[in-house]
Design goal:
single chain, Aspartate Aminotransferase, domain 1, Aspartate Aminotransferase, domain 2, 2 domains, seven-stranded mixed beta sheet, five-stranded mixed beta sheet, 13 helices, 12 strands, 41% helix, globular, binds pyridoxal-5'-phosphate
Length: 396
């Protein structure tokens, strides 16, 4: 039978990237005591009041069809949230989606197609290449350099731009590196985007998980309002990834054009989840503050614990749920190290290659497991690193 080319374009960009995670889960289900440090699934539940609100809404009959833009209570809550950042935001700027991922997919579909190209920093979040290639557009990478703390530099962006480029897909705070762009960097990047008439699609799903200092976004700059679209959700901020509740906020013309894409694709989102999301956005809930403290503490713990490990260089994050470790000093790349760690030490981490060529020498460790497991995982990583150091010496 014949299939559309999208299935070829995405063939190796889906679950292949999560192969180690899937294999670790398979082994776990057979009883192997694997320490799983792969995906960014918060280890605390959503606040009890969110569950109560979703239940209340369901019992109140909020399970009927919705509309394409989003249920009025959540749209209004989003307007209140984003008005704090830019005074001109109205409900005409809001579109609701089941999570950031779907928002990114639909937004990209509305902005680019075959013949176009999308700029994105490398390292990059594992699904971005698929999101870009699904549209038929090409991906153009901008190197994010360790010496700049993985912060995108305007000069690197400008150097990468080709005639086909229409969009910069920006991610701050960044997954996997935890980099948080500064106001000066955002201003310089915004200037380049204005000069080359690029859209800026900004994935801000980790906005609430910045460890120190503020969060800055191109969305906050009125001069960039006509070209900036924010995608985000309550997945990380409220430890609620399974609720699949997110949004895109962008210029009015953009949302009105995208509405039919969204309606065709989704036929609305779930009203009881929309009510719960409105409640989450409107009420002071301490989940993100607790996660910030916890994840920063665990990142520091890993840095301290691996300080003496031969060939391992942890790169401390500024935000988020992960830390990357450069393993090239062991003589292995991230992929080789991650498989050896799973096979020999029963610890599952993500190979950097799942996050682009720029992360090939790294592994990504999730900070969403308790300290005891983190300590034990570090001990096992150090043991593997020490053995590979010996192997290297023997080979030399
Ligand atoms: C950078 C980034 N964007 C988007 C997502 C997906 O978020 P959501 O659950 O809102 O779809 C993730 C999830 O890990 C992520 O790390």
């Amino acid at each position: 039978m014949r299939y559309a080319s999208i299935t070829d374009r995405l063939a190796s960009l889906g679950s292949e990237k999560w192969e180690i995670h899937i294999e670790a889960r398979r082994r776990k289900s057979k009883g192997e005591p694997i320490i799983e440090l792969t995906i960014g699934e918060p280890d605390m539940p959503p606040h009890e009041s969110l569950l109560a609100e979703a239940t209340r809404a369901m019992h109140a009959g909020r399970y009927r069809y919705s509309n394409g833009r989003g249920e009025p209570p959540v749209v209004e809550a989003l307007v209140r949230k984003y008005k704090k950042r830019r005074a001109d935001v109205t409900s005409a700027n809001v579109l609701c989606f089941p999570g950031t991922q779907t928002a990114l997919f639909a937004v990209m579909l509305g902005l680019v197609e075959k013949g176009d190209a999308v700029l994105v920093g490398d390292p990059l979040y594992a699904t971005y290449e698929g999101v870009i290639r699904a549209t038929g557009a090409d991906q153009v990478t901008v190197p994010l350099r360790a010496e700049n703390g993985f912060h995108m530099q305007a000069a690197d962006l400008e150097r990468a731009i080709t005639q086909e480029c229409r969009v910069l897909l920006l991610n701050t705070p960044h997954n996997p590196t935890g980099a948080v762009l500064t106001a000066a960097e955002i201003a310089a990047i915004g200037e380049v985007c204005r000069k080359h008439d690029l859209w800026i699609v900004c994935d801000e799903v980790y906005e609430e998980l910045v460890f120190a200092g503020g969060f800055v976004s191109p969305f906050d700059n009125p001069d960039l309002a006509e070209r900036t679209i924010v995608c985000s959700s309550i997945s990380k901020s409220h430890a609620a990834p399974g609720f699949r509740s997110g949004w895109a906020i962008g210029p009015e013309e953009f949302t009105s054009r995208l509405l039919s894409v969204s309606e065709t694709m989704l036929f609305g989102v779930q009203p009881f989840i929309a009510d719960m999301t409105a409640f989450a956005l409107d009420n002071p809930i301490d989940t993100s503050a607790r996660m910030r403290t916890s994840y920063k503490g665990r990142a520091d713990r890993i840095v301290a614990s691996l300080a003496e490990a031969p060939g391992l260089l942890p790169l401390p994050p500024e935000a988020g749920m992960f830390i990357v470790v450069d393993v090239s000093g062991t003589g292995m790349n991230g992929e080789e190290f991650a498989w050896a760690l799973l096979n020999e030490e029963q610890v599952a981490v993500m190979p950097g290659a799942s996050f682009g060529e720029g992360a090939a020498d790294f592994v990504r460790i999730s900070l969403t497991v308790p300290e005891g497991q983190i300590d034990e995982a570090c001990r096992r990583m150090s043991a593997l690193a020490a053995r590979s150091g010996l192997k290297k010496e023997k080979r030399a």
